[in-house]
């Protein structure tokens, strides 16, 4: 007779001693006498995967995050055994696995310790769900800093924080609130001027503790699945971020219009309202490329339908907006209304495409249309079906982009805001519960959307934006930081969030300018615009419940500031497009926090506000009301104040005066900054010259400019223009060397060169060894020089 049904509590379990190992090509498996297996796989000399199982065998190896289209390779691998440990050595690092307990330590080739286990891998059996709660703890060094983890509303440096990864609809979230919409379980550690990265590729709810619970211990754990992580060695943070971005994948180039300014609201309807907004942008000459339709454009919030009362002829309307340069972007949510007369619902029901509960019924939840069922986007057949649904929107009506929202997935009027955990998913042939699939649901929806938009937009490029995402989502979609609030604190949060997303692989990100919830003052909106134009994705978005938030909802001064800064963004489009090219080609983040830019300078380790936009423009937003200046840190090197052209020596904190229509902007000495003329939308103007702002530096500096047809796929066939500029500054001479690659011939024929900071008066100019006559009245220290674009070397002599 059983008199006590209480289970024996076993607590944490640990690997015991290693009893065997085998080495096969790029992998080494270590076996303990309590059936733990550690598989160490060397993907590159600086990229090593560690995968643990406690059951004596591994489950099917599958990941949504890893970019399988990219191959890896290492230069050197040696496995050896000494008395106490095994060693796996590459040309960059050496990993030691202790025989007694399987704890790991990783060193560089000079025996400097990079990372070591504290307790190392351990686990706890999960009686309620089955499987294990898997845990890892690492020792943290004195002065160690931590960065990354994607969308977090907290300090850039995560030291002392505990954070949670579970995609959650957090309307009007607060500073330090956890969790948020996105899940990027990747962090960067920095100590002793050396950086490394950890990517914990586990889609269950995960947690990270950066010396919060224990002073010198960093740990991470998951509520299920495997302990499966990738170690990335720098030693520069640039190397870590580039390798991680390469591992999880990079997007294709967006159409250039997607990098313009976008305007959105919940909601623009009826058609006359949308047309009024479009007309006002053109009347005020505030550049804008895209207008968004939120859920009210649909018939009863049913996806892929139109409310014919509000929008009687969407094809005509979209075409008329396009004639004036506006691209239409529409929202599509995952919830499909339960309605037997609704064709999308009937089709999904017929093909058994909806998610089911554990005992068989379809998952049912309330969102905007009322009671809904939800497609299982982890099923390849469902993704293919979903992609096909975009034919009418894209190829027939002419919509240019799709906005995926509510895809955490969000469910209303339930305590946990999402699906019950017993919901079942196909998971690409690896059936599982929602506990495992929750964090990747939004990414798989965006993936299916991307393939649909791409299919029907061809030969143009697709544009997709998502709210929820897991690591690797950047292969399919851009993102924004969700339902923020019109407060100064949220302006501070937005600045950090987008920097953090940029070094977490998801560069194409922005915030709702002005705040989604509540109503900004004119001053706050102006300051947010001044920051937002330096984010890769640039969109004003607001909840109509709280009033209007178009630029003209404020006074003339705010309108002028909006026009000034949005126009500056349009001038800088070739610079921004070049940033994007370097992101997709080399994995270089478009925004660089100061610690990324110069990790050896300890003064950068706790800076939140300043960042480098691209490679050569330093941005520092004004984050407090009534401010006409602020203290900021200038990174090491020489910089020029963008507004005054005053030269500043970096490596120190300084006071910078600003006006209401300015924020602190600095340009790196030696930089060549390309500019287009101001356009009201991408492609509005044909122009015959590209402006080059060239900032003098004593010494050498390299700059690049990437251009192509601004849409389509010819760039993949070599039809692009990649210009490499090198400036060489001497006491009485500035040399500008130009090298061009690619088969694309730009429409303009000449460069308009503005010279900034020349320390001498120009007496002579040579272009490709030929002297050029010039009039000192029109060309001098403040003038400009027009040069035909075919030059290879320009000498400006004092």
Can you put this structure into words, describing what you see?
The N terminus is likely disordered. This protein starts with 17 loop residues before the first strand and ends with a strand. The protein is an alpha+beta fold. A hairpin with a 2-residue loop joins strand 3 and strand 4. Helix 5 packs parallel to helix 7 and helix 9 runs parallel beside helix 10. The strands form 10 sheets. A 9-stranded antiparallel β-sheet has the order 5-6-7-8-9-10-17-16-12, with no helix packed on it.
Q: What descriptive keywords fit this protein?
A:
disordered N terminus; 798 residues; nine-stranded parallel beta sheet; nine-stranded antiparallel beta sheet; single chain; globular; alpha+beta
Low-confidence stretches: 1-8
Biggest sheet character = 9 strands, antiparallel
**Could you tell me the radius of gyration in angstroms?**
28 Å
* Portion in strands: 25-35%
How many angstroms separate the termini? Answer: 102 Å
Helical stretch count? 12
Question: In order across it, which strands form the biggest sheet?
Answer: 5-6-7-8-9-10-17-16-12
Give the class from helix and strand content and strand pairing: alpha+beta
The level of helicity is 10-25%
CA-based shape: globular
Q: Taking all residues together, what is the mean pLDDT?
A: 96
Number of strands: 51
Short description:
With 798 residues, the protein is α+β, with helices and mostly antiparallel strands. It is built from twelve helices and 51 strands. Helix 5 packs parallel to helix 7 and helix 9 packs parallel to helix 10.
